[in-house]
Design goal:
alpha/beta, Rossmann fold, 2 domains, 7-stranded mixed beta sheet
Length: 365
């Protein structure tokens, strides 16, 4: 068995472990982090039937009482105030006490929703993240951001809550649909490019095998990602500056997602957003990293173009910088670009015309 863990110490909460292993011994991982008591499991309608029984059994083995297993519909729509209320009321009806623990078993939706429930139920209970999607393992379960969407926009309600433990069983990824695996790999590629060094080398070495769900390759890339994201958010827990580099590829991605009415999977939008940013980096800062990006995205099973969209709608949804206007009166956009692999710069001003041509370069027929 491959043992693997990273300790995250943000300074603002107790340090906690992120365990990433095949055939993870959940009972022992949880027993290291918390004294057993009452716990509730939150999961969704896709993950629950596959993995909740085994998790319940492991927690029972470790001496936990589980008065409630709450299952919400799979999908982003569960990050809503209505579902949040349902979950809170289920916990209250089950009598989950003030010193109870919420186990969030699922992808980023369950992690964000469960985290927000844990941050507010009885003014806050313990949270254990049990991420089952690759995206949740490498991105959403790290950093302490939890929350919900409003009809007015995504992630408009939220809190910061660090979990007591993040435990990821690599076997869970065996049931993740291929397309979802690639969504997670988009964020892995992003962080490897931002980090450079041995993480970047690991991309070249492990991406193909990770796509084939090789446990060792997945473990290496997940641990690299967790270490990298934890380091960035620890330096900058409240997002003053450094954390902004994690938006690499995301400026255009957000515009594309909004223009497509959120039909476009996030990781695919980020993939082409990075490619567009690589082109902008070349024209504005010099380095030729376009082919490197293309190779990595292909290896991750990600597209190099997305279905055609209205460029003006994409631009309109990108959120321009209203304080700075270029001479033509159009707002400027702020991008994370690259001076090289491992050397991102944030806040680079990009004109509307430059952005238009970068967007156009990743639109397919
Ligand atoms: N908090 C943060 O810092 C942060 C960072 C990035 C993203 N997010 C949020 O994360 C969410 C996206 O996360 P996601 O991509 O994991 O989406 P998700 O939770 O909707 O999971 C994707 C799909 O995969 C299914 N699934 C998950 N694990 C599975 C498994 N092991 N086997 C079979 N099916 C499985 C889910 O049921 C769902 O249908 C978004 O809401 C986003 O805003 C949060
Ligand atoms: Zn993202």
């Amino acid at each position: 068995m491959l043992a693997g863990s990273v300790t995250v110490d943000t300074g603002s909460a107790a340090p906690y472990e992120v365990r990433v292993e095949p055939a993870l011994d959940l009972a022992s991982a949880v027993s290291h982090a918390l004294r057993p008591g009452a716990g509730a499991i939150l999961t969704d309608s896709s993950v629950g039937p596959l993995h909740a029984d085994a998790v319940s059994a492991a927690l029972a083995d470790a001496g936990w009482e589980i008065p409630a297993v709450v299952t919400v519909p799979a999908g982003e729509a569960s990050k809503s105030l209505a579902v949040y209320e349902t979950v809170l009321r289920r916990l209250a009806a089950a009598g989950l006490p003030r010193d109870g623990t919420l186990f969030a078993l699922g992808g980023g939706v369950v992690g964000d929703l469960g985290g927000f429930v844990a941050s507010s139920y009885m003014r806050g209970i313990n949270l254990v993240q049990l991420p089952t999607s690759l995206l949740a393992m490498v991105d959403s379960s790290v950093g302490g951001k939890v929350g919900l969407d409003l009809p007015e926009g995504k992630n408009l309600v939220g809190a910061f809550l660090q979990p007591r433990l993040v435990a990821a069983n690599l076997d869970w990824l065996q049931t993740l649909p291929d397309r979802e695996l690639s969504q997670g790999l988009a964020e892995v590629v992003k962080m490897g490019i931002l980090s450079g060094g041995s993480f970047y080398d690991d991309l070249g070495e492990h991406l193909g095998a990770a796509r084939g769900r090789d446990a060792e390759a997945l473990q290496a890339l997940i641990l690299d990602s967790v270490r990298y994201k934890a380091a960035v958010v620890t330096e900058d827990e409240r997002e003053a500056g450094l954390r902004a580099v994690l938006n690499y590829g995301h400026t255009i991605a957000h515009g594309l997602e909004a223009a497509a009415g959120y039909d476009l999977p996030h990781g695919e939008a980020v993939a082409v957003g990075m490619l567009a940013a690589a082109r902008l980096s070349q024209s504005k800062l010099g380095p030729d990293l376009v082919e490197t990006h293309e190779d990595l995205l292909r290896a991750a099973g990600l597209p190099l173009t997305v279905p055609s969209a209205d460029v003006e709608a994409v631009l309109g949804a990108m959120g321009r910088d209203k304080k700075r206007r270029s001479s033509d009166g159009e707002g400027r956009y702020r991008f994370v670009l690259l001076e090289d692999i491992g050397r991102p710069v944030h806040g680079v001003p990009v004109t509307a015309d430059e952005a238009r041509s970068a967007i156009g370069s990743v639109l397919g027929p």
